């Protein structure tokens, strides 16, 4: 009896410390327990317009999208699409399954509950290649721009300037990027702001693509083109621009005195093509040049 | 032994199928000139884009003029002079259109109108070439006015397709008989077109594949699924004209849009080939 | 000058003196370096502070009008899309039909035609259409002719 009394009054378990402190251990706004994270600001009745979709004109975040004729998109639909269909379609195609994780053979009792074996000849799984039809003609889906500024570790102002640079050349609001881990060798600490990134889709993407292929790339001296070796095997193509190349963007070039320093950047063009080879064919239709030897293609067969 | 037998059997199969004489296969060429200017907007598109653009301008942030024009510079003075400033709020004044709400020299209740200062264009000055006002060329060319169907400069917003007039079959896509030398379909089509229209032409063959097949039975078009004896087949290869000119000596030809093709060719021919021609 | 100043409450006039957008009091000397000032200006360009216009306030009638316009547009886009897809489907069927036919007629030609075209590139001369034509609409002289 005495023991329990002392236990109840003076000695306290960790699990009960929340109760003692007088704070609830869980949310008191309904729904209280939920597996899915709920943005509880949306539950407030104060601004019902904020809960509407952003395409609704009553939402304060509403922005119209189709504000002008999209000549790149129209070019794709009117000319490129049917040509790509003709290039890609083959008779007698069937789904080629990619490399998948394998079962263990069960020869050892330790195979039970073990994660599946790696695919044969590869560390990661690869996608299935489906027959090419009129329903899966490749098209450009997004352009990711990543601008990592190495000097930002010493002077974070550079990271801020790179944000503005990206905003100026793309016209969309960029996001800052931060170092994820400590890299002692580079003198980078986790949490340092290291540059900017942006994702372009739709009209801004087409605008950017046409600026790139019509204004910037033709003026770069001795620019050979995107490497034919570039690509992530699933139909996305990567390339980069140096700080000097970025100066050819008209927004930067016409305000030269505002830009004593420019920053290079990496581009990842996301396409719905199934292989890199098809993605390159698609991109060449928009005027992006390619150079170098391509894997699995004899040099005499490449048509430039 | 079994393997050998199988080999032989397939080989004989191939032989039997390739017994069809070479002169019953033809390659046809769908030569396309891409649009040079953007498609014409319909009335609906025009007004919709206008509406959306006005909405966007209304919702746009204020133009950060201080960033682009250095304070106290000549360019800033010129820019500020060109702007029509907003009506500012003053005590004791009645404003018919509501009390002005001005932040950073912008009326927040309406779109901001930015006027780019234009300099006087002087032909004699040395900078004249740089400051020359931009005058766009007309989207309607001479060829449109004279309706010259043989010109490649007609109908700039539309895709043009090359058609020639055959004595027996009327207007159709140019087709060429396969020869032993240029046996491959795409090579034969390109070579045949050059024989007909001269070498001064730069084209790009889209693919080695035919995009369609047309079948004739004694000079009459039959269904493309038809499979009887004595058919003459035309495999259509698609190609783009990039530069140069198709200038044949003694045949009639025309560069036509889809609607014009419908008027020129026979009804059966149009039905069989309609989907090949670009809508725009 | 004095009369205007006397109308502004004392605590306001001590902080900032503004008469119709013209500052009458000298601003304090900037304490930041030019480099930092440039970054501050750059950040202010991409931030929306003091740049937001007023929110749209549409009457019910206006909102319905807006929604009707948008509905009409999406229906129009849908029609265009369907038309495109139908044409592509016809083209697809026609390509397969032609290839199957070629297979029956001449297996050699079929093998060449049905080969996967890796390394295929659109020529650099094919351009995205522009709003107005160039001074020289069409190039009649041929620069390079491979074939």
Description:
The complex is a heterotrimer of chains A (304), B (280) and C (147). Chain A has a domain of 153 residues: Ribosomal protein L5 (50s Ribosomal Protein L5, Chain: A, 2-Layer Sandwich). Chain A is α+β, with helices and mostly antiparallel strands and 304 residues long. A five-stranded antiparallel sheet of chain A has the order 2-3-1-6-5. Chain A has a two-stranded parallel sheet with strand order 4-7. In chain B, strands 1, 4, 5, 6, 7, 8, 9, 10 and 11 form a nine-stranded mixed sheet that branches. In chain B, strands 2-3 form a two-stranded antiparallel sheet. In chain B, a hairpin with a 3-residue loop joins strand 4 and strand 5. Helix content of chain B is 29%, strand content 21%. Chain B has nine helices and eleven strands. By secondary structure, chain C is mainly α. Helix content of chain C is 53%, strand content 3%. In chain C, strands 1-2 form a two-stranded antiparallel ribbon. In chain C, helix 4 runs antiparallel to helix 5. The longest helix of chain C has 46 residues. The N terminus of chain C is likely disordered. The interface between B and C is large, with 77 and 63 residues.
Q: Count helical runs of chain C.
A: 5
Give the strand line-up of the largest sheet of chain C: 1-2
Q: Show unreliable segments of chain A.
A: 1-9
Oligomer: heterotrimer
Summing up helix and strand content along with how strands pair, one would put the structural category of chain A as alpha+beta
Helix content of chain A: 25-40%
Q: Give the strand content of chain A.
A: 5-15%
Shape of chain A: globular
The overall pLDDT of chain C, averaged over residues, is 83
Compute the number of strand runs of chain A.
Answer: 7
Compute the average pLDDT of chain A. 88
CATH homologous superfamily of the domain at 140-292 in chain A, by name? Ribosomal protein L5
Shape summary of chain C: elongated
* Biggest pleated sheet of chain C: 2 strands, antiparallel
Per DSSP, the total helix count of chain A is: 8
**Roughly how many Å apart are the termini of chain C?**
85 Å
Order of helices and strands of chain A: HHHEHEEHEEHHEHE
Please write the CATH class name of the domain at 140-292 in chain A.
Alpha Beta
Strand order within the widest beta sheet of chain A: 2-3-1-6-5
Name the pair of protein chains with the most residues at their interface, and give those residue counts.
B-C, 77 and 63 residues
What's the alpha carbon Rg of chain A, rounded to whole Å? 27 Å
């Amino acid at each position: 009896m005495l023991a329990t009394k002392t236990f109840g009054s003076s000695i306290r378990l960790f699990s009960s410390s929340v109760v003692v402190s007088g704070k609830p251990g869980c949310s008191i706004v309904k729904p209280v327990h939920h597996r899915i994270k709920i943005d509880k600001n949306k539950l407030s009745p104060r601004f019902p317009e904020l809960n509407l979709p952003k395409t609704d004109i009553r939402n304060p975040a509403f922005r119209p999208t189709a504000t002008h004729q999209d000549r790149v998109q129209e070019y794709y639909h009117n000319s490129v699409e049917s040509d790509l269909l003709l290039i890609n379609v083959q008779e007698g195609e069937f789904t080629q399954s990619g490399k998948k994780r394998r079962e263990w053979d069960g020869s050892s009792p330790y195979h039970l509950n073990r994660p599946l074996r790696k695919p044969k000849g590869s560390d990661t799984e690869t996608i299935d290649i489906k027959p090419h039809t009129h329903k899966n003609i490749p098209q450009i889906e997004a352009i990711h721009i990543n601008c990592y500024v190495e000097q930002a570790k010493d002077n974070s102002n550079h990271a801020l300037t790179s944000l503005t640079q990206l905003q100026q050349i793309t016209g969309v609001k960029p996001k800052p990027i931060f170092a994820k881990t400590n890299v002692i060798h580079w003198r980078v600490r986790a949490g340092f702001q290291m540059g900017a990134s942006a994702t372009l889709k739709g009209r801004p993407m087409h605008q950017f693509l046409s600026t790139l292929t019509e204004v910037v790339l033709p003026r770069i001296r001795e620019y050979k083109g995107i490497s034919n070796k570039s690509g992530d095997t699933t139909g996305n193509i990567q390339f980069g621009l140096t700080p000097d190349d970025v100066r050819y963007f008209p927004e930067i070039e016409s305000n030269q005195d505002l830009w004593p320093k420019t920053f290079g950047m990496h581009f990842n063009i996301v396409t719905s093509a199934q292989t890199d080879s098809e993605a390159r064919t698609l991109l060449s239709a928009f005027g992006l040049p390619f150079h170098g030897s391509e894997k699995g293609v004899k040099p005499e067969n490449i048509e430039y | 032994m079994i393997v050998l037998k199988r080999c032989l059997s397939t080989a004989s199969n191939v032989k039997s199928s390739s017994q069809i004489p070479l002169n019953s296969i033809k390659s046809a060429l769908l030569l396309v000139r891409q649009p040079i200017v953007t498609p014409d907007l319909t009335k609906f598109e025009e007004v919709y884009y206008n509406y959306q653009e006005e909405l966007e301008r209304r919702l746009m942030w204020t133009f950060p003029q201080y960033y682009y024009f250095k304070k106290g510079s000549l360019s800033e003075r010129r820019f500020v002079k060109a702007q029509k400033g907003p009506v500012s709020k003053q005590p004791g004044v009645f404003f018919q259109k509501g009390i002005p709400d001005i932040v950073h020299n912008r009326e927040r209740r309406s779109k901001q109108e930015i006027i780019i200062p234009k300099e006087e264009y002087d032909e004699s000055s040395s900078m004249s070439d740089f400051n020359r006002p931009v005058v766009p060329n007309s989207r309607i060319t001479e060829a449109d006015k004279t309706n010259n169907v043989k010109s490649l400069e007609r109908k700039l917003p539309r895709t043009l397709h090359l058609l020639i007039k055959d004595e027996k079959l009327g207007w159709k896509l140019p087709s060429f008989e396969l020869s032993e030398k240029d046996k491959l379909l795409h090579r034969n089509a390109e070579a045949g077109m050059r024989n007909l229209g001269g070498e001064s032409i730069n084209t790009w063959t889209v693919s080695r594949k035919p995009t369609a097949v047309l079948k004739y039975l004694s000079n009459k078009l039959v269904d493309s699924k038809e499979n009887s004896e004595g058919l003459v087949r035309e495999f259509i290869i698609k190609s783009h004209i990039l530069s140069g000119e198709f200038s044949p000596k003694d045949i009639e030809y025309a560069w036509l849009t889809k609607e014009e093709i419908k008027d020129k060719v026979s009804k059966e021919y149009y039905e069989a080939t309609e989907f090949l021609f670009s809508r725009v | 000058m004095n009369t205007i100043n006397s109308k502004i409450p004392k605590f306001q006039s001590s902080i900032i003196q503004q008469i119709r957008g013209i500052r009458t009091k000298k601003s304090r000397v900037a304490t930041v370096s030019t480099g930092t000032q440039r970054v501050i200006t750059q950040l202010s360009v991409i931030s929306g502070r003091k740049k937001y216009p007023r929110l749209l306030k549409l009457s019910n009638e206006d909102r319905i009008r807006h929604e009707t316009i948008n509905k009409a547009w999406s229906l129009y886009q849908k029609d265009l899309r369907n038309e495109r897809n139908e044409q592509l489907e016809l083209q697809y069927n026609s390509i397969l039909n032609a290839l199957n036919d070629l297979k029956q007629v001449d297996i050699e030609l079929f093998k060449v035609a049905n080969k996967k075209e890796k390394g295929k590139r659109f020529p650099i001369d094919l351009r995205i259409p522009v709003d107005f034509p160039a001074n020289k609409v069409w190039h009649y002289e041929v620069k390079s002719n491979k074939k």
